[in-house]
Amino acid sequence: MQYKKRITIDKIAKIIFKSTGYLVLALLGGIFFMLLYNAIAFFLEVSPLDFITGSQWNPTAAEPAYGILPLIVSTSIVSLGAMLIAIPLGVGTAAFISEYASPKLKTVLKPTIEMLAAIPSVVIGFLGIVLVGPGIADLNNLPNGLNALNGAILLAIMALPTIITISEDAIHAVPQTYREASYGLGASRWQTLRKITIPAAAPGIIAAVMLGLGRAIGETMTVLMATGNAAIFPKGFFDSVKTITATIAIEMGEVPYQTTHYYALFAIAIVLFFMTLVANLIGEYFINRFRKYHAA
């Protein structure tokens, strides 16, 4: 009797967990097809090639322009700039916490870093306006600091808790026998960390970086407040930019319903969806390569 009850509970649990998995896929598919349905209405009026390669975004002009290329480049510059800052800081901090920090320091440092993730994005954006932006302007003799560099610094701060936490878990999960074997061959702690521990933890570290990149690409409020929101083709990190997420946030509340401009925002969302998807697929590719390398 007890055996039959356990089997029944296992079957029910299996059905519940399978249903939740399919529900997530259904929700993701529903969001994608909703975006695609509205984007098609836009592409019936505007050529997809002109949309992707156009160098001007000005939907409210007398002759509306729906070129998304400046928005794509702006989003890429800010996100990649954030990763250039966050990856070395994040992985370095994770390595310090896992390999060098004392147990007492680790119990204080790790929860403190994780608490950074709880800071609202509007607060980070406010700090960018009143602190980071003026500092950038003063150091580089600029009229204001609302530019891509400001956004990259703020997004790096927001991505750090994710990168540090997951990277530290990945480094900590490397078997101790790897380290002991390296020490037994005469390697120092630094050599072991650089040539043994971090390569062994690479799949987890790459996953952390991809999650941080996803956070940077999809962030809205911070870049809306700190990057200047100029829909022009940026030439560098000191130019004001307008990201895809900021464009949707600014214009969706004011655009007339079921107009070309309205449907254009869904087309932008589709582009953002694919940018995030490509980043995840690239991360998954390198994760699988490292796993096969270690398995061999």
From TrEMBL:
The chain crosses the membrane at residues 21-44, 64-97, 117-136, 148-166, 196-217, 262-282. Gene3D superfamilies: MetI-like (1.10.3720.10). It is a multi-pass membrane protein. GO terms for biological process: phosphate ion transport. One of its GO terms (molecular function) is phosphate transmembrane transporter activity. Pfam families: BPD_transp_1. It is found in: Cell membrane. GO terms for cellular component: plasma membrane. It comes from the Bacteria. Residues 72-283 form the ABC transmembrane type-1 domain. Keywords: Cell membrane, Membrane, Phosphate transport, Transmembrane, Transmembrane helix, Transport. Belongs to the binding-protein-dependent transport system permease family. CysTW subfamily. Part of the binding-protein-dependent transport system for phosphate; probably responsible for the translocation of the substrate across the membrane. This is Phosphate transport system permease protein. It comes from Sphingobacterium athyrii.
